[in-house]
Amino acid sequence: MLEAARRWARLLKRDIVALYLAARSPLTPWYARVAAACVAAYALSPVDLIPDFVPVLGYLDDLLIVPLGIWLVIRMIPAELMARFRAQAAEITAQPRSMAGLAFIIVVWLAVLALAGWWLL
Fold this sequence. Notes:
Layout: H1 2-24, H2 30-44, H3 60-76, H4 79-94, H5 99-120
Helix pairs in contact: 1-2, 1-3, 1-4, 2-3
């Protein structure tokens, strides 16, 4: 069961990247581009419709709204085009990640915290 959940999460991640690619492609119908951009932006956004700290309802958008939005947008995009976007997304998500970006963000946050501490003292 845990492996099935991991597989589902990987497919969801791939489809979110595929929707991002679909939103940027001129081959995608305009209405699907708008919907794909909205769903991808919402799925990748740190801001949720219902905050995660709200018991039970907080994870409702992550478990229902995002997958439902992905499903609806995928149905708007022609199948052969969506297959191409999914293949591109699979290549992108399979690439190794750079730790330099993570290190940069951590250094920036540490510098901001140090400056805030210095300013308060």
